[in-house]
Amino acid sequence: MNLGRRLKKLRIKNNLTQNDVAQFLSVDRTIVTKYENNTLVPNDKTLYKLSVLFKVEKNELIYFKVYDIFIIVIFLLNI
Description:
The protein is mostly helical. The longest helix is centred in the C-terminal third of the chain and has 12 residues, at 66-77. Helix content is 70%, strand content 0%. The two termini are 21 Å apart.
């Protein structure tokens, strides 16, 4: 699961809207949308804030499963 999907899943699990997350981060809602769509990657400080909001370790947000890495490598190598 990629970061965007993970963020969306955690947001929904915590019964939060994108506006709720945006207010917590002090950003526009469109930024949260971009995070969830993987068109923008949150910086380290924002990842920390998100981990606090969702009550998870920061590493849990950015952890890639071996399968995810395998798919990325295949995509990059154009296999």
